[in-house]
Each structure stands twice: as C-alpha cells, then as structure tokens.
C-alpha cells in the first residue's frame, strides 16, 4: 500500500477498471495526463503520482511581504483527504490512463518517506510498462535500493528562506539540508549514467550565496544541472520574483526554471 495525497494519481479520466470517471480531471482536458511544468523535462507529457506526508514544513515570505506556504501543503504537512491504495491498483489505474505517455513523475510530500513501497511500484512499472520515472524529492533522505529503480532525480534542497515560524522552525532548519544525501544522489547518477537536477526556489538575495556555499560542498555537478525557480504559487507572485531570478541565473550560468503549469492552469491542484 502507498499513502497518497488527495489528488493521488493525476490527471486521469478512467478508474482501475478502465471506466470513464464522471468528471473531467482538474486540467479540464478530455485526455488523461498533463505536462511536466518544471525543470529539464519541462513540457513533456506525463502522469503524476502524489504521495502524502513530508518531513519538512516549508513556508516562505514573498517579495511583497506575504506568507507563502508550500504549494502542496495539503500533501505535505496539512495533509487532507489522503488515502492508501495497493500497488497493483495504482498500476491498473496508470495502465488505463497511459495513452502515448512514457513519463511518470512520483512527487509529494516526500516520496523517500515511503522508499520501500516506491521501490516496489517502480520495479513493477518498469517490468510491465517501461516508463521513464522521475522522483521529486527534497533530498534529505537517500535510499540506494529505491534510487536504483528511478531514472531522473529532481532534487530540491530547501534554503533558509523556507524556514517556518515556531513551533516548526527548529525541526525544519535542522532537517532541510543533508549534504551526504544530496551527494549520494549525484554520485548514483554519475555512476549509473542517469540524469538529475538541483532545483532551488529563489525568494531573496541571501538564497544565491547559500546555493553557492552548498555547491562548494558537492562534487559531480555542472552549471546546467543547477536550476533557479521564482518563488510564488500564482502568476502575480511569480512576476514579482522572475526578474531577479533571471538575473542570478545569467550571472551564475544556471538554468532558469519556469513554472509552466501555473501559466497554463493557474494555482490549481491535480494539473
């Protein structure tokens, strides 16, 4: 059994028996699937599995001075309407909604909190469906047996700008960066000829020096692997942070990370 967030497997149009669902997916499209909205695989048709539960409690301040919680808090630390499904049922649902989609993204929450079950899911998907599998992780946890079953690692270490108010601040701050875990991901990728990205949220000027200091502690990365993403859950919030994000990408030779799904669908879940 895997513990899923309320949007679970998305966007889909059919259930585990292949029967049409009564409502369209949140994308509003008549076909299952969406596109990857962030990172090196931006724009690629994909299905998503969102797992529930996270070991962090990310909360940022926007450039306008507002509080901006993790855009998937409902799957992370304000878990609501979560549920569990057997791995076999998850595979059946994915099979009925695959179409011409070859990319599957496992996200959260934090997927490596359920590493054993994620490993089982990926092994079966590889055996039966030959998906390219991405995992989106905060990179605080590394489990080699699970990593072996994954093709692409989207690593999103959380900078000090993500620290929430008390009573969550101390745990979050002590947990948010795990250099040995990040290095283990990179070493695994290089050894096994896979791909990864280090994706950071830009929320203020201190972020850049923190990223630079973090990178000095890591080996095996190139500038093309470093992505800087504007902070914000709405187009309006993004527009405030995009100019500075672009500037720092150009200054440092990093990639600018768009948030294409927000441009296409707005601040919606399950897209």
TrEMBL record:
Question: What terms describe the molecular function in GO for this protein?
Answer: 4 iron, 4 sulfur cluster binding; carbon-nitrogen lyase activity; magnesium ion binding; S-adenosyl-L-methionine binding
Co-factor remark: Binds 1 [4Fe-4S] cluster. The cluster is coordinated with 3 cysteines and an exchangeable S-adenosyl-L-methionine. Binds 1 S-adenosyl-L-methionine per subunit.
Any one biological process term the GO annotation gives: tRNA queuosine(34) biosynthetic process
Q: Which UniProt keywords apply?
A: 4Fe-4S, Iron, Iron-sulfur, Lyase, Magnesium, Metal-binding, Queuosine biosynthesis, S-adenosyl-L-methionine
Q: Kindly state which reaction or reactions the protein catalyses.
A: 6-carboxy-5,6,7,8-tetrahydropterin + H(+) = 7-carboxy-7-carbaguanine + NH4(+)
Which residue ranges does the record assign to the Radical SAM core domain?
Answer: 41-267
Q: Where does [4Fe-4S] cluster bind?
A: 54, 58, 70
The entry's S-adenosyl-L-methionine-binding residues are 109, 156-158
Q: What is its EC number?
A: 4.3.99.3
Give coiled-coil spans as residue ranges.
none
Cofactors needed by this protein, per the record, are: [4Fe-4S] cluster; Mg(2+); S-adenosyl-L-methionine
Record-linked InterPro entries: 7-CO-7-deazaguanine_synth-like, Aldolase_TIM, rSAM, rSAM_sf
**UniProt subunit comment:** Homodimer.
Q: What does this protein do?
A: Catalyzes the complex heterocyclic radical-mediated conversion of 6-carboxy-5,6,7,8-tetrahydropterin (CPH4) to 7-carboxy-7-deazaguanine (CDG), a step common to the biosynthetic pathways of all 7-deazapurine-containing compounds.
| The protein's name | 7-carboxy-7-deazaguanine synthase
Q: What organism does the UniProt record list as the source?
A: Butyricimonas faecalis
């Amino acid at each position: 059994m895997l513990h899923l967030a309320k949007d679970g497997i998305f966007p889909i149009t059919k259930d585990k028996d292949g029967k049409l669902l009564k409502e369209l997916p949140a994308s509003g499209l008549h076909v299952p699937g969406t596109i990857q909205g962030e990172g090196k695989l931006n724009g690629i048709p994909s299905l998503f599995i969102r797992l529930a539960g996270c070991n962090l409690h990310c909360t940022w301040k926007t450039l306008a001075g507002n509080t901006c919680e993790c855009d998937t808090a409902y799957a992370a630390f304000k878990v609501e309407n979560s549920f569990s499904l057997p791995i076999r049922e998850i595979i059946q649902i994915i099979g009925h909604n695959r179409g011409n989609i070859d990319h599957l993204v496992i996200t959260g929450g934090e997927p490596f909190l359920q590493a054993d079950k994620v490993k089982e899911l990926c092994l079966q998907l590889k055996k039966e469906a030959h998906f390219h599998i991405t995992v989106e992780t905060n990179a605080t946890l590394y489990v080699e047996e699970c990593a072996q079953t994954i093709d692409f690692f989207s690593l999103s270490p959380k900078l000090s700008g993500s620290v929430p108010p008390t009573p969550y601040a101390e745990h979050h701050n002590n947990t948010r960066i795990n250099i040995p875990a990040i290095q283990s991901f990179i070493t695994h990728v290089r050894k096994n000829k896979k791909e990864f990205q280090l994706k950071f949220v830009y929320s203020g000027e201190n972020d850049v020096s923190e990223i630079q200091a973090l990178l000095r502690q890591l080996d095996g990365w190139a500038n093309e692997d470093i992505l800087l993403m504007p902070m914000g859950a709405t187009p309006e919030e993004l527009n405030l942070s995009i100019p500075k994000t672009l500037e720092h990408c150009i200054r440092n030779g990093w990639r600018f990370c768009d948030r294409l799904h927000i441009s296409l669908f707005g601040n919606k879940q399950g897209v």
